[in-house]
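Backbone-to-sequence.
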């Protein structure tokens, strides 16, 4: 059981985590492959005070080093859902489960909308986790829609356990097994009536029984239904608190401007207020 779970390993999430540790709280940061973070791909940053003309990768490495030195624990993976229950938040991370008393959402902006047919086929052939559901499709035709740097490795693993894999992605996959056919397509559609029967990828139709959609993160409102939005962003108050007690948010997921300085500042507030929230709960016991 952690005091605070932070979803997202960018500037907002790491700032919140460091602040939580500064307040003496145990903190877990859950994030995907660092190569999927938009900051990591930024070639030059001039407007983050104290780090003129720095690459995003170097800045992010400094943030991660700082958080680790403060004792922040890290777990690589995608949070699939968050279940609040009796004062505890249960985080489903692939096939694993973690628990925390408070949550900071720092997921960034989830830029890809759901595909046609995706929501209708959840639980009926559409999956977001190769490790969780791969064994269900041994010997069967599946499509992997790869939107992360680590997606080719997950497709390789699905092939190794006996799935008949076709890889679909917007570009050339790096590290994909040569015996896995790859289709280049930016738009896809899941086909079928009561269950998945195929995937339309560009002009091609791929017959399959399962579709694994591998994104770097999920929209906060998919992770935790009931969160209030303000436009396309999470609604928070000046304490970075959402409408759900014990859940805070920071960074790009709370709105414009999408800047490192804003993310770090909001993360500091979110981590501080999450720790105060727990202190208040402890005083009531």
């Amino acid at each position: 059981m952690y005091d605070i779970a932070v979803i997202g390993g960018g500037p907002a999430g790491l700032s919140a985590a460091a602040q939580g540790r500064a307040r003496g709280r145990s903190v877990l940061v859950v994030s995907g492959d660092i190569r999927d973070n938009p900051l990591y791909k930024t070639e030059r940053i001039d407007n983050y005070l104290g780090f003129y003309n720095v690459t995003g990768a170097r800045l992010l490495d400094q943030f991660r080093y700082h958080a680790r030195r403060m004792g922040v624990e890290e777990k690589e993976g995608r949070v699939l859902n968050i279940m609040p229950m009796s004062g505890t938040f249960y985080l489903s991370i692939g096939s694993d489960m973690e628990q925390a008393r408070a949550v900071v959402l720092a997921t960034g902006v989830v830029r890809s909308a759901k595909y046609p047919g995706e929501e209708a086929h959840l639980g009926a052939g559409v999956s977001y986790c190769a490790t969780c559901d791969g064994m269900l499709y041994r010997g069967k035709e599946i499509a992997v829609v790869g939107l992360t740097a680590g997606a080719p490795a997950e497709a390789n693993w699905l092939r190794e356990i006996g799935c008949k894999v076709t890889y679909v992605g917007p570009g050339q996959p790096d590290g994909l097994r040569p015996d896995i056919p790859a289709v280049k397509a930016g738009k896809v559609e899941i086909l079928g009536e009561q269950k998945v029967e195929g995937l339309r990828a560009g002009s091609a139709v791929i017959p399959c029984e399962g579709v694994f959609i591998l994104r770097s993160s999920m929209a906060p409102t998919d992770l935790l239904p009931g969160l209030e939005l303000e436009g396309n962003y999470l609604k928070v108050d000046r304490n970075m608190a959402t409408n759900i007690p014990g859940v805070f948010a920071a960074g790009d997921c709370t709105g414009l401007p999408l800047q490192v300085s804003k993310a770090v500042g909001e993360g500091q507030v979110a981590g501080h207020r999450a720790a105060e929230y727990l202190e208040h709960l402890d005083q009531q016991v």
